[in-house]
Design brief:
The chain has 345 residues and is an alpha+beta fold. 43% of the residues lie in helices and 15% in strands. The protein has a nine-stranded mixed β-sheet with strand order 1-2-3-4-8-7-6-5-9. It is globular, with a radius of gyration of 26 Å.
Length: 345
């Protein structure tokens, strides 16, 4: 099927054509899409190995459908899944109007790159690439030493040298492969930061080891034992009570029903006006989001999106993504103690 005919089918609301366009633009991002249609509603299932970013993906789908000019679709249901999890980690309902679709399709020429997220041409070469290559190549030294001695002292000298060279070359090959990625600008900054941080930690550890050995050799019988709290994977990923309650959320529930289900007033609230007050970019919609701090401090907060005119739920995050202590586990927005928006009417 040609790209032109695929676009024509997508404009007519064909779910297979829309799925093909989405998957084409998500290629290489570890996300797969399935699309189904019922009357004027479109249901889009997105699945990935890692937790899926709700805001960027919903904006990506909404803008893509608008730019295609699919006038026969008035409602989109988007569900984000993580692999091996039968339940969605978040859901989003988007209502489309003919005016929005008309403006978007007229302002943007539809092509095979209409639906796109984060694609840009990376700048390669220069001093920063050289610094990244040199810094990351340092990690090839311990790898080369390890590989050269992996088969013991009885290994032939040629094999040991060959394995050592392979170990030294691995970081260089990794960098050369990653340089072809369209997100190389961001990747190289992450690599540079991680490499420098690792080197600093290693040097600090080495210095402490030398000082300890020096004191030990001089006969000083002193040692410092630092016990760091350890958290098992079970405690980090344990589903909290509020997340279990959030699993019972349904579309179009009223604010009063959500409040009664979760059992307490939300901690924060955010809409475009509050985002503007906090200096954050506005989203350009009328949704209002309430967030409840998770009982498990290692997990993200529970958040529910409401249609501000009807105050009915249009999407939510059950707070099941648990990656350990993080600033992202704190509810975002204005504290409910500072505004009347959170009061149950």
């Amino acid at each position: 099927m040609t790209q032109k005919s695929l676009l024509e089918l997508a404009k007519q609301g064909d779910p297979n054509a829309i799925a093909a366009l989405i998957n084409h633009n998500l290629n290489g991002k570890g996300i797969k899409a399935r699309v189904s249609r019922k009357d004027d509603s479109l249901k889009i299932l997105l699945k990935g190995d890692q937790p899926l970013p709700k805001e960027s993906l919903t904006s990506f789908v909404e803008n893509g459908i608008k730019k295609l000019g699919v006038t026969c679709i008035t409602t989109i249901y988007i569900l984000g899944y993580q692999t091996d999890n039968e339940k969605p980690t978040w859901q989003k309902k988007i209502a489309l109007t003919p005016t929005q679709i008309s403006k978007a399709s007229q302002s943007d020429k539809v092509s095979d790159s209409t639906i796109n997220i984060g694609a840009s041409s990376p700048k390669r070469g220069g001093c920063l690439d050289s610094i990244v290559l040199i810094t990351f190549s340092i990690f090839g030294l311990p790898l080369g030493i390890f590989l050269s001695g992996i088969f013991g002292e009885d290994t032939s000298e040629i094999l040991r040298v060959t394995l050592g060279i392979i170990g030294l070359s691995v970081p260089i090959v990794v960098i050369l492969i990653l340089r072809q990625h369209h997100h190389w600008n961001k990747i190289r900054l992450v690599i540079l930061f991680a490499s420098i941080t690792s080197l600093i930690v290693f040097l600090a550890y080495l210095r402490q080891s030398i000082e300890y050995q020096s004191q030990h050799n001089q006969g000083k019988d002193e040692s410092t034992i630092v016990n760091e709290p350890q958290q098992s994977n079970e405690s980090i990923s344990q589903v909290s009570r509020i997340s279990q309650k959030a699993a019972q959320l349904r579309m179009d529930m009223s604010y009063q029903e959500v409040f009664a289900l979760l059992g307490r007033v939300p901690d924060t609230v955010v809409n475009d006006q509050i985002r503007q007050e906090l200096g954050e970019p506005i989203q350009g919609h009328t949704l209002i989001t309430f967030e409840w701090k998770n009982d498990n401090l290692n997990c993200q907060p529970v958040s529910v999106d409401f249609d501000s005119s009807k105050m009915t739920a249009t999407g939510w995050n059950e707070g099941r993504v648990c990656t350990g202590p993080s600033i992202f586990n704190e509810p975002f927005g204005k504290s409910c103690s500072e505004t009347a928006l959170c009061k149950v009417r």
